[in-house]
Amino acid sequence: MRIMTQEPAVVLLLAAAVLAAAPLAAQPAETTVTAPHYQKGPEIRGIISARSGDRIQVTADDGSKILVEIDDATRISASGGFLGLGRSGQPATALMNGLPITVATEQSGAMLRASQIKFRNTDLKLANMIHSGTAQGFAEQAAATQALKGRFADIDQYDIKRTANIYFDTGKWALSEQAKAELCATTKLAEGMKNALLLVVGYTDDSGPEEYNQQLSEKRASRVVGFVQQACGWKPYRMLTPTGMAEADPAAPNDTPEGKAQNRRVAVNVLVSKAADAL
Predict the structure, then answer these.
(1) Which residues does UniProt assign to the signal peptide (predicted)?
(2) For residue range 210-257, what is the model confidence (pLDDT) as tens digits?
(3) How far is CA 74 from each of CA 48, 67, 78, rounded to the nearest angstrom?
(4) Per-residue pLDDT for 142 more than 60?
(5) pLDDT one-digit tens code per residue, 65-75
(6) Which residue from 105, 163, 160, 152 is spatially nearest to 125, judged by alpha carbons?
(7) If you average pLDDT over residues 16-24, what whole number do you get?
């Protein structure tokens, strides 16, 4: 006679009974994470003095240091490129120490988040030159630094032998016959100086919005550069990087028509490097 064992089935039934009687393991309580509520914050103007991860430190003109967060939603753009370069998107890697920026912020309590960061192409070029550390390029950019309000002061590498100011009508960048004659006279004088270079800087008065004035100052500088090279025969390799400065560094107060007229100008600086004899 064959005997069939039932032990496996009994074991399974007992195991099922034990599991049914066991209390359920405690489940972690669900937590709700509340996203910070942002509202429009202050506009910050200054120079990047430090960067770590998703935060940058901006040193304002008054010396105060402000921490600002950046994220994927932060719009980064450069404007004011010389010779009419328009606004262009930039990667976050462009935010390097020493770069002057304007930051539109959103605020949540003490936290500031950058919604937009703007800077000038000319400032980015200078910051890149300083970080790359190329000796010849840095020496050339040192003079342009003075035009950018001494942000990276090394102008003492050059002697300013002469500055010719070319004046313009309101909103215009055309050269008068007098201006043309003065430009060629200036380049002729510079030709007689060993190793002389030209630095051309365009300006406006304070009429009109900032972006318009930036473009206008660049158009004025561009017109002067084109004329001295094409009509006066000045070699392009003997020019430092030209720039437009809008209404910065006024030659006179802008509260009178006479003062405004003095500020609508292009400064043509004749420079000689103090180290030129060693080259």
Answers:
(1) 1-20
(2) 889 999 999 999 999 999 999 999 988 788 778 889 998 899 999 999
(3) 16, 15, 13
(4) no
(5) 899 998 888 88
(6) 152
(7) 47
Q: Decide if 84 contacts 222 (C-beta within 8 A).
A: yes
Residue type, 160: I
Task: Report the sign of the C-alpha dihedral through residues 253, 217, 220, 147, in that order.
Answer: positive
Helix (H) or strand (E) holding 197: strand 196-202
Q: pLDDT tens, 187-198?
A: 999 998 887 888
User: From CA 98, how far away is CA 205, in angstroms rounded?
Assistant: 27
Token pair for residue 31?
A: 């937590």
Q: If you ran DSSP here, which 8-state letter would residue 155 be given?
A: G
Name the CA dihedral angle for 148, 154, 156, 161, rounded to a multiple of 10 degrees.
-40
What is the rounded radius of gyration, in angstroms, for the C-alpha atoms of the chain? 32
Q: Go through the domains of the chain in sequence order and give each one's CATH number.
A: 39-123 (2.40.50.140), 135-278 (3.30.1330.60)
**pLDDT computed for residue 196 by the predictor:** 85
**Sole residue written with tokens 């429009």:** 40
Q: 144 with 240: CB under 8 angstroms?
A: yes
